[in-house]
Specification:
The protein is 33% helix and 31% strand. The protein contains 7 helices and 11 strands. The chain folds into 2 domains: 147 residues, Electron Transport, Fmn-binding Protein, Chain A (Pnp Oxidase, Chain A, Roll); 86 residues, PNP-oxidase-like (Split barrel-like), CATH 3.20.180. The radius of gyration is 18 Å and the shape is globular. α5 crosses α6 and α6 crosses α7. The longest helix is centred in the C-terminal third of the chain and has 20 residues. The protein is an alpha+beta fold and 243 residues long.
């Protein structure tokens, strides 16, 4: 890939969507930095979502000072030379999020933590992204604005309202299509692939601990758009598999 092929915003958005864990940096009572490991999901627009315990030091820090940073690494970057992998540091403010769609998207992405969501001392939080810093290899170090990292959800209210139903329908009736998306279009390992969310830019996929991101060839804002694009993509996958 040449430098002219490198799309920094697209790379950062993909990392946001596929990273399952991240290093959360908060500020202690004395102003000193404090870093912990957390599980991460994304809201419809790509804003990071966290499920945090009130007993945790990082949560107490955030209640005093909401400023935080989140280091996310592209899958595979943890192996071999970790500094050779693409990663993005997202900075902003983190606050409680009581949106039911945020809760649903987090639980779909981290089903193994579903029981934590019912504990009284656990709550959902969302980061309001203020800036990003992408490192994607030698000479590929880019500062990014929120607009470059997040998905534009303007005009996508109909898709947002239909997303939960569309995700359930794909998981119940079209697992074969999800498997084709992952293995043929994305080149990911075979597995029991499901989708955990859809947004105007793409489809989030999961098989066990593996996550994938299927970008759409065009922006979708309605359930009809989503259905049409998914049909086109599965057709493309079948043609590619048969070639």
């Amino acid at each position: 890939m040449t430098d002219t092929d490198f799309d920094a915003p697209a790379t950062a958005r993909t990392i946001l969507r596929v990273a399952a864990t991240g290093g959360l940096g908060t500020l202690g009572r004395d102003g000193a930095p404090f870093t912990t490991l957390v599980t991460v999901a994304t809201a419809l627009d790509g804003s990071p979502l966290l499920l945090l315990s009130d007993l945790a030091v990082h949560t107490r820090n955030l209640k005093r000072d909401p400023r935080a940073s989140l280091l996310l690494v592209a899958p595979g970057g943890e192996d071999g030379d970790p500094l050779a992998g693409a990663r993005v540091t997202v900075s902003g403010a983190i606050a409680r999020a009581d949106d039911e769609d945020d809760r649903r998207r987090f639980v779909a992405r981290h089903g193994e933590r579903q029981h934590h969501a019912g504990f009284t001392d656990f709550n959902f939080y969302r980061m309001s992204v203020e800036r990003g810093h992408l490192v994607a290899g030698f000479g590929r170090i880019v500062s990014l604005t929120p607009e470059e990292m997040l998905t534009d959800v303007a005009g996508a209210d109909q898709l947002a309202g239909a997303e939960a139903g569309a995700v359930a329908h794909m998981n119940e009736d079209h697992r074969d299509a999800l498997r084709l998306y992952a293995t043929v279009l994305l080149g990911l390992p075979d597995g029991d692939w499901t989708t955990t969310g859809a947004d105007p830019d793409g489809l989030d996929l999961r098989a066990g601990s593996i996550r994938g991101r299927l970008p759409f060839p065009e922006r979708v804002t309605t359930s009809a758009d989503l259905r049409r694009v998914l049909v086109e993509l599965v057709k493309a996958a079948r043609e590619k598999a048969a070639a």
